[in-house]
């Protein structure tokens, strides 16, 4: 009892120490708010008066003040979250990412008797704050000096003796958790022994209940993850890692890091490509929590080409169809379709005009020849319309009898131009041109491909008749599928976009203040609106991050590639989770999209999501899906084994799913995901009706990237049989849970007496 009280007293005292520091930080920030408000008012009043040098200096000040003001107004949780206590020492070697790779204590920092003094204490937070005398009160987590907070380990501690994670809300410090990096030392701080509280922040973070949105991991980034986050953004950074190794988290933190490190360079925008709208909404809170929003667009694959697609796609084709639509064979088909669509059934077969008092006609054969001629090159079809117009006029002029009437070239040219003007303003000519060479829209061409006969013509020697039938049928269905979007985007390029007038923006004197408009909440346009506007206006980005990259089809790689032709890239993925039937073809397409840019590879090896009990079960499916592939190492174990159930006689599938979901809801505090085969999505949602919003039903392909406190996987065999990549999709489904997993065998599974279906046995 007395011992516990002593611990509590030490803990309270340490919380008090951090509280004092946080108070000091807030006092300083308040001073800065006043400065920021003053500067902003001043700037707004003066408009663009001032010398360039003074302007630049003032801009920089306003920018920094604006950052702080905005952050403060957002009242971050855990504004200040870390602290490291360091031995005196050298700064070590600066790595290519600017972080110190080896920060070693000075030779005399540790005395022969194993005692040492803490020489320096640094606090780490979401933004950096300097005191009035320019000493750092808080170091931005992305600054090189903060790297030891993430990279130091008991094996390679460097100068770090104690690493502390501080939990705070608004202005109040709620708790501290320490990790000792040099447990062998007797270290003292200000003459007193260095206290150590708790047993580590990582485990505390991993055990927390999950909600419907992802949290940032800024206070517990691990060393191997930190290396990826801070990797210099040259060319392509490629990150591979199994389920739960933090690939998505790392990708998001990397976006924040890159913006911090070189905001100007990334003013061209960062695009994060995510496989599903569900994963977009799950992850979109992370960047704002890190203080970044305006320059980053997170887009689902079905939502990436809104302009070309004329909407957002959220339906999925059956695997056999998406396999064809995704393959690079479609490129040849689309090229033909983009040109062939001009030849629609209602296209006029005859052109008749009156010029120079004569009736002139071009007949079907002549028209066909002219079209063939115009389409000779590879230029986008819509951009060839002026050429088509000119060749029509040439042909008509040739028939007019006017050729050769004047030997004087000047007079001949005059005659020709008056002929052109006469004809090309005639209603019959204009009407003909519109019908014969209409401005084609991607959606119109895709609709035309729904006609099996026409598609058959365009796909000759590329798709077999069965494939043509399947694709045409799928295109006749209302709505867009996710795989249609990449086709539409390709068509957009093949057809050429008609020039659009640029939107005019209103003049605003504040615009000249670097970055201010993006950071200040006082403007009418919110950050989110600005992000959306920028995304809508932008077609290319400075950095492209692809999450779940193993799933992009060749056609999707082409679509994403067009958005980052001059970009640097971060690509994260796991081939073992690929739902694409031919990973080699997708990898070849990826390589084509990335061109010859050099790649740097990283691997993440630790599973932070699944307890060992669940990871072990999933590993059995991995062994079937990808023999020889290693599973990531799970860091924790809960002692709770997965539960196996077979469909009960009374309730049938619906009743059993419902009762097992209820059981899981009672066993965890947070979310429950019920994963079913794709074509059971709608009925599964009905089975769960009325159980509240902690539980969701999702199709196997939608589970990608998400996580739940508990999952119920319904019929492994159904999921595995759904597509050629079914085993890998099942592997994804089994690796979504942070605490509990129930596997329910349906009619197709063959459970043993313990209820374990055949696919999950040794
Ligand atoms: N360093 C960390 N500290 C705390 N939590 C972490 C850390 N790294 C990862 N996590 C947590 O582990 C879970 C898995 O992370 P994430 O979703 O990024 O993994 P992933 O590799 O993208 O997984 P998948 O391939 O299955 O989609 C998340 O809840 C994430 O917050």
Briefly summarize what is shown.
The protein is an alpha/beta fold and about 750 residues long. The protein has 28 helices and 25 strands.
Features:
762 residues, alpha/beta, eight-stranded mixed beta sheet, six-stranded parallel beta sheet, 28 helices, binds adenosine-5'-triphosphate, P-loop_NTPase, nucleotide-binding, UvrD-like_ATP-bd, DNA_helicase_UvrD/REP, helicase
Give an overview of the whole structure.
- This protein has 762 residues and is α/β, with parallel strands linked by helices.
- 41% of the residues lie in helices and 17% in strands.
- It contains 28 helices and 25 strands.
- Strands 1, 4, 5, 6, 7, 8, 9 and 10 form an 8-stranded mixed sheet that branches. A 6-stranded parallel sheet has the order 13-12-16-17-11-18.
- A hairpin with a 2-residue loop joins strand 14 and strand 15.
- Helix 19 (482-495) packs across helix 22 and helix 22 packs parallel to helix 23 (583-594).
- The longest helix is centred in the N-terminal third of the chain and has 45 residues, at 2-46.
- Adenosine-5'-triphosphate is lined by residues 202, 205-206, 215, 217, 220-222, 225, 241, 243-249, 574, 577, 608-609, 705, 707, 735.
Rg, rounded, reads 32 Å
Number of helices: 28
Task: Give the biggest sheet.
Answer: 8 strands, mixed
Mean pLDDT: 84
Helical residues, percent: 40-55%
Beta-strand share of residues: 15-25%
Q: First CA to last CA: what distance?
A: 48 Å
* Helical/strand content category: alpha/beta
Shape: globular
Query: Bound compounds, please?
Result: adenosine-5'-triphosphate
pLDDT < 50 stretches: 499-527
What is the tally of beta strands?
Answer: 25
């Amino acid at each position: 009892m007395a011992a516990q009280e002593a611990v509590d007293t030490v803990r309270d005292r340490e919380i008090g120490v951090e509280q004092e520091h946080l108070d000091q930080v807030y006092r300083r920030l308040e001073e800065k708010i006043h400065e920021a408000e003053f500067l902003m008012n001043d700037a707004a009043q003066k408009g663009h008066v001032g010398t360039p040098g003074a302007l630049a200096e003032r801009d920089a000040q306003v920018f920094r003040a604006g950052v702080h003001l905005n952050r403060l107004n957002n009242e971050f949780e855990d504004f200040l979250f870390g602290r490291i206590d360091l031995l005196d020492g050298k700064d070590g070697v600066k790595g290519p990412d600017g972080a110190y790779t080896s920060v070693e204590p000075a030779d005399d920092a540790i005395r022969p008797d194993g005692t040492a003094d803490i020489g320096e204490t640094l606090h780490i937070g979401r933004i950096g704050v300097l005191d009035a005398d320019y000493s750092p009160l808080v170091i931005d987590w992305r600054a090189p000096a903060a790297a030891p907070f993430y990279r130091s380990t008991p094996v390679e501690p460097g100068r770090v003796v104690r690493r502390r994670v501080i939990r705070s809300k608004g202005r109040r410090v709620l708790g501290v958790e320490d990790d000792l990096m040099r447990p062998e030392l007797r270290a003292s701080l200000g003459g007193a022994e260095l206290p150590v509280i708790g047993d580590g922040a990582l485990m505390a973070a991993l055990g927390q209940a999950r909600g419907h949105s992802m949290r940032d991991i800024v206070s517990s980034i691990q060393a191997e993850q930190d290396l990826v986050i801070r990797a210099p953004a040259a060319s392509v950074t490629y990150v591979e890692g199994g389920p739960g190794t933090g690939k998505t988290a790392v990708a998001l933190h990397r976006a924040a890091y890159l913006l911090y490190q070189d905001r100007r360079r990334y003013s061209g925008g960062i695009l994060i490509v995510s496989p599903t709208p569900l994963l977009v909404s799950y992850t979109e809170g992370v960047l704002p929590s890190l203080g970044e929003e305006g320059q980053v667009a997170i887009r689902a694959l079905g939502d990436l080409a809104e302009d070309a697609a004329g909407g957002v796609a959220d339906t999925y084709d059956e695997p056999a169809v998406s396999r064809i639509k995704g393959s690079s064979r479609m490129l040849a088909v689309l090229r033909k379709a983009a040109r062939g669509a001009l030849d629609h059934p209602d296209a006029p077969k005859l052109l008749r005009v009156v010029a120079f008092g004569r009736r002139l006609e071009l007949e079907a054969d002549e028209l066909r020849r002219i079209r063939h001629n115009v389409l000779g090159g590879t230029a986008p079809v819509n951009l060839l319309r002026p050429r088509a117009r000119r060749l029509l006029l040439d042909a008509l002029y040739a028939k007019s009898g006017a050729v050769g009437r004047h030997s004087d070239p000047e007079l001949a040219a005059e005659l020709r131009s008056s002929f052109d003007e006469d004809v090309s303003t005639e209603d019959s000519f204009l009407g003909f041109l519109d019908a014969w060479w209409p401005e084609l829209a991607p959606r119109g061409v895709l609709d035309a491909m729904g006609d099996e006969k026409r598609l058959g013509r365009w796909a000759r020697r590329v798709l077999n008749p069965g494939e043509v039938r399947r694709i045409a049928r799928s295109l006749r269905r209302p709505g867009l599928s996710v795989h249609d979007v990449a086709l539409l985007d390709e068509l957009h390029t093949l057809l050429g976009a008609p020039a659009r007038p640029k939107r005019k923006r209103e003049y605003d004197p504040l615009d000249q203040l670097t970055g201010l408009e993006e950071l200040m909440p006082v403007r009418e346009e919110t950050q989110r609106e600005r992000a959306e506007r920028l995304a809508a206006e932008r077609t290319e980005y400075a950095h492209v991050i692809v999450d779940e990259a193993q799933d992009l089809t060749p056609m999707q790689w082409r679509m994403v590639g067009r958005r980052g032709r001059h970009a640097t890239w971060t690509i994260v993925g796991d081939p073992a989770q690929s739902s694409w039937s031919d990973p080699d073809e997708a990898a070849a397409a990826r390589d084509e999209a990335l061109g010859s840019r050099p790649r740097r590879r990283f691997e993440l090896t630790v599973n932070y999501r699944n307890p060992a009990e669940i990871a072990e079960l999933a590993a059995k499916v991995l062994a079937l899906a990808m023999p020889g592939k290693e599973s990531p190492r799970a860091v924790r174990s809960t002692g709770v084994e997965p539960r196996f159930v077979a469909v009960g006689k009374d309730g049938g599938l619906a009743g059993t799913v419902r009762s097992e979901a209820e059981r899981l809801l009672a066993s965890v505090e947070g979310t429950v995901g019920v994963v079913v085969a794709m074509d059971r999505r709608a009925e599964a949602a009905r089975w769960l009706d009325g159980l509240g919003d902690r539980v969701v039903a999702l199709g196997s392909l939608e589970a990608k990237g998400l996580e739940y406190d508990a999952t119920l996987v319904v019929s492994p065999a159904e999921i595995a049989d759904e597509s050629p990549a079914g085993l890998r999709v099942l592997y994804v489904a089994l690796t979504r849970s942070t605490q509990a997993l129930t596997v329910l065998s349906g009619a197709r599974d063959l459970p043993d007496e313990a209820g374990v279906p055949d696919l999950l046995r040794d």
